[in-house]
Amino acid sequence: MDFLRITSLIFICGVLLNFPAKVTAGDIVHDDDLAPKKPGCENDFVLVKVQTWINGEEDAEFVGVGARFGTTIVSKEKNAQQTPLTLSDPRDCCKLPRKKLSGEVVMVDRGHCKFTTKANNAEAAGASAILIVNNQKELYKMVCDPGETDLDIHIPAVMLPQDAGITLNKMLLNGSSVTVQLYSPKRPVVDIAEVFLWLMAVGTILCGSYWSAWSAREAAIEQDKLLKDASEKELPNFGTADSSTVMDINMISAVLFVVVASCFLIVLYKLMRFTWFFEILVVLFCIGGVEGLQTCLVALLARWFNRVGELYIKVPIFGAVSYLTLAVSPFCITFAVVWAVYRNSSFGWIGQDILGIALIITVLQIVRIPNLKVGSVLLGCAFIYDIFWVFASQSLFHESVMIVVARGDKSGEDGIPMLLKIPRLFDPWGGYSIIGFGDILLPGLLVAFSLRYDWLAKKNLRAGYFLWAMIAYGLGLLITYVALNLMDGHGQPALLYIVPFTLGTFLMLGRKRGDLKILWTKGEPERVCPHVCLESIEESNREG
């Protein structure tokens, strides 16, 4: 792989890894300190499923949000009754409906009076529930005014978006018999998608680390051979691969990460609502995915077809290219193009994960942390970056910039492509469990560094640092999932938990074992030159 190709791959990955901590598809329960609770107005805001039947046949399902007031919505579908739906007269229900109701669900328009007034009038007319149609496509939290006292409401109130109200209104005006079922199912405490996502993240770092360490060990062995046959005094550092295939991160680039990543995140936040900009992101992801997938496949096939892997041909612009690269490139390009076309399909996540994992593994093999000092600065900056843009950005932008970008809220797409994701198969609300590239790649650089050091120092798993770094990363990611569930699905900055676990474990072990100075500065174990060892052995043999 030539320098130009490596530089382009690193640039693409640098763009793609400026993405967020793990979040889920949507919040089912949401509390809001700006809408304080008081007796009669103390419900949590919950999403509500409104299943419809037209003339006895199951039809569309809509999603609304429950009000702060009224009775709570049942959580199990089997406990929810199918109830006839009717229109209010007057439509806004600011006055008592002219027609007496007998347990129907009444649908009213928003406006002209308080939400609680509508609910009280609907209950007085005999309605069993009230659906309030918003005058916008978005949902709105229905709260109580500070001075309200008439809050003894015993029917559930749900707000529907404008498009849902238009659809239901057409059905009713056509004379169709419409019945609805209201319920708010709870998400499972642990979804199998989170387990598989955890395994994917850990497995990706594991593969990338072993590939990186294997390359470093092969380079060290090759240099040992050169030292045995050569007498030059100045030779490359041990344990480093050819400079054309590896790029070390320095202190400046580690610090600049926060600045560049923050600027790019703001650009995403402002421009991702434009279709052309989102398509650029897709193209960048495809280019990086093709490079990653191609590199991984060539590396694997080269182990089985050694002779073919060593044959090269000159290609204009690209220079010398191996026959294996030419063989797998059409497949990789086709794979990425097919994913781009069908990325919004139900199976699009599979291609996205394959391309993303290949890209991350490739970068873990190419980009390296030279020592623990640079790793600490990089992860420390990423730690601050993650926390600020998930939590602190809400005070500046009135919403979490990181979470908005991750979900693709303003793009009209099903999330951005720079994420690993798995559908929540057993979640009644559907959606995806996702994790950002940065939450795998950045800690992965430290874990890969630990394995390279262990192999060069000839440490076994228990006496080395890699095993404990992997365990620390797995625990940190696990704690992220626990925090996510405790926060009712609110997005969490994964590096908030992962960085203290991985970096903290590394630092404590290094200090305890007396290796911290070498790890912090040099990043490689002290090694004796092979020709010096041979001379010492020969001298001892002569003396003997």
From TrEMBL:
Alphabetical UniProt keywords: Endosome, Glycoprotein, Hydrolase, Membrane, Protease, Signal, Transmembrane, Transmembrane helix
Family to which the UniProt record says this protein belongs: Belongs to the peptidase A22B family.
Signal peptide from the UniProt entry: 1-25
Function noted in UniProt: Intramembrane-cleaving aspartic protease (I-CLiP) that cleaves type II membrane signal peptides in the hydrophobic plane of the membrane.
Gene Ontology CC terms: cytoplasmic side of endoplasmic reticulum membrane; endosome membrane; Golgi-associated vesicle membrane; lumenal side of endoplasmic reticulum membrane; lysosomal membrane
InterPro entries cross-referenced by the UniProt entry: PA_dom_sf (IPR046450), PA_domain (IPR003137), Peptidase_A22B_SPP (IPR007369), Preselin/SPP (IPR006639)
Keyword Phosphoprotein: no
Protein name per the record: PA domain-containing protein
Molecular function terms, GO-annotated: aspartic endopeptidase activity, intramembrane cleaving
Limits of the PA domain: 90-167
Subcellular localization, as worded in the UniProt entry: Endosome membrane
Membrane topology summary: Multi-pass membrane protein
Signal as UniProt keyword: yes
TM ranges: 195-213, 249-269, 275-305, 317-341, 347-367, 374-392, 429-451, 463-484, 490-509
Biological-process GO terms, alphabetical: membrane protein proteolysis
